[in-house]
User: What shape does this take?
Amino acid sequence: MLIGIIGAPNKGKSSLFSALTLNEVKIANYPFTTIDPNKGVAYVTEECAEREIGIKCNARNSLCKNGIRYIPINVIDVAGLVEGANEGKGMGNQFLNDLINCDGFILVVDASGKTDSDGNFTDKNYSPAKDARIIVNEVVKWLGDIIIKHKKSYKGNSDAFYELIAGFGIPKDAANNVIESNSLSRKFDWSNEEAYKFAGTILKISKPIVIAANKCDVKNANIEKNINELKEEFGEANVFECSAAIELALRKAERQGIITYSGNSFDIVNSGISKEQNDALNMMKSFLDSKKSNVQKLINDLAFRILNNIVVYPVEDENKFTDHFGNVLPDAILINDGATAQDLAAKIHTELANRMLYAINARTKIKISKTYTLKDRDIIKIVSAAK
Ligand SMILES: Nc1nc2c(ncn2[C@@H]2O[C@H](COP(=O)(O)OP(=O)(O)OP(=O)(O)O)[C@@H](O)[C@H]2O)c(=O)[nH]1
Ligand SMILES: [Mg+2]
Assistant: This one.
């Protein structure tokens, strides 16, 4: 899975990226700090199945800490987008090509309203809902312009059109639904306006966006009003109030052994910290007390609820829940809700899937067919004629 972090300049995209990945990247209080994309690994979390089977796991493709499985996903942080990027304003929009394979986007806005659409500081409250609208529009223009640019190659040729769209990870079925619902011609001789219409609708369906309403820690700001506007426009469940700066500081402090951090609260475990560190931690504690930190919830919701993924655990020994080497529940695999046992086999190895005979539900020890629809937290043994 690949998630793209987008937004206007200076909104905290790289701070959020760094909080999610703990990669050291350039963060600064001026626009266009990021030029080249930052790529890294973040983790989605779910309670590990080890508790239910009553055996401590030996996580291999993921991490397990205090009974929580941390499953890796890829994230990418790019330069800031500004209005008119498709005409070359700011850093332009070519860098969005790096996001072509993204499954979904996190759109970072400044919920404090203290930076404008170009990322410059402002005394007036700059509406983050307006900011988000501009960014969504720029992403639509980016895809629409690519479709327009290739018109010659697919006009009158549906296969060529589907091929172009497949390059964005958009399946033919989804494209067809959009063509139908917007009554677009199947001759693919669309006007520019129709190409943008297609781009807007297909992006909504195939590349969902969640809003990181960032900088919620800023004092003397119209945060409540701004958040309400965002929720009205993007839906309450898709807006996550957060402070990437505080989340980053807390995750770093945890890594340095200063605190233990659960995502909603922390305990100081290193008594040797300075007064400055202590004051900073107290400030962060009062932030967590009044508002939760929603950074982990945001990435979890995007991966599980919005992008419809579940976690399954493939094993080789259905009695001991182990792999070939005796590791208990070694792998936690993210897979689309609706996937079958055979889809799981294909994720592990093509040959395993091609020569698959059946599977076994390791929890019940019951034999299941290749077409069995996987459920969240299933533990599955694939039985295959493959060596
Ligand atoms: N108060 C506060 N400041 C933040 C927060 N997140 C980021 N910042 C600050 O906002 C400024 C911009 O942060 P970056 O992470 O570099 O923002 P960006 O969106 O990646 O910026 P560009 O790469 O220039 O587009 C920096 O000074 C950060 O320290 C936050 O949650 N709260
Ligand atoms: Mg940046």
Q: What stands out?
A: The radius of gyration is 23 Å.
